[in-house]
Design brief:
single chain; about 150 residues; alpha+beta; four-stranded antiparallel sheet; elongated
């Protein structure tokens, strides 16, 4: 029910300029969902909705995740711009970057949400990427090489 309700919320905010949680709750009730203000608030947080100005001086909710595909291109570009090399050491992938780019490349890796990645630690020009297994570290290395065109 939660996924269906949250899908309806996305549909509503794409169709209407919804300014308040109360208005959103009202539109959900019109669509057949019984919700409390706390539920709407939690859904807004989970969906990462944000308010942006409208042309008429008001505000409306938008989904920050709507631009994920566009942002993915930006993250890949950061990865390409900063990547120097990668080497697997058991379940750790050690990535070398252009000096000063490790934190940006690590943030891009996190944002790209590779299933193999447990987490990243970045210095100035080196990133340690914790991966579940040695096999996955090698697979991730290959994926990154393909992404950056190496």
């Amino acid at each position: 029910m939660k996924k269906i309700r949250q899908g309806k919320i996305i549909e509503i905010i794409q169709k209407y300029d919804v300014e308040t949680q109360e208005e959103l709750a009202g539109r959900l009730e019109e669509a057949g969902f019984t919700v409390t203000q706390a539920t709407v608030s939690r859904d807004i947080r989970e969906l990462k909705l944000s308010k942006v100005p409208t042309g008429g001086g008001g505000q409306k909710y938008v989904s920050l995740q709507q631009d994920d595909s566009h942002m993915g291109d930006k993250y890949v570009r950061v990865l390409k711009d900063g990547f120097v090399s990668a080497d697997a050491a058991q379940n750790i992938l050690v990535i070398k970057t252009v000096s000063g780019m490790a934190m940006a490349v690590a943030a891009a890796l996190d944002a790209l949400r590779f299933a193999e990645v447990v987490g990243c630690i970045a210095g100035d020009d080196t990133i340690f990427v914790a991966v579940h297994t040695a096999e996955e570290a090698r697979a991730l290395k290959d994926k990154i090489h393909r992404l950056v065109g190496q």
